[in-house]
Specification:
Layout: H1 3-17, H2 23-34, H3 37-47, H4 67-76, E1 80-81, H5 88-94, H6 97-103, E2 114-115, E3 117-118, E4 133-134
Helix pairs in contact: 1-2, 1-3, 3-4
Amino acid sequence: MTCATFRQAIAWVVTRNHDLLSTAERAFATGFEALPVPAQALLARLSMRRGALFRRSKIRYAEIEPLDEALSALIEIGWVDARPKLALTDLFRLATRAELARLRRSDGAAHEIGPLRSAHRRAGRGAYVSGMARDK
């Protein structure tokens, strides 16, 4: 789904169903419209991905430049969490075998992997909008 289509869908829902939307849903629509276009495009793209966590290095969209600015805008308003807590299963899913091997140092201490998780939920689905993990 392109950003324009995502924006059009939100506008359609707000226009035709404003009285049925919760305060949080109306706030989302208003907040989304206030975002810079690259941040809107990134949120639209992430919301279409499967899962809640992604590696930062795997987020590559030609139409979203500069990506770091779009990401920062979403972090700033709390729709993406730059430091979520990871379950061990999340770590295993996100990391490569080589990275997992490097996580354990000789003294037994673990290195930190910096993930991002969206704090915003998809309307009506109860699932997190996709987030990302920052590579070191």
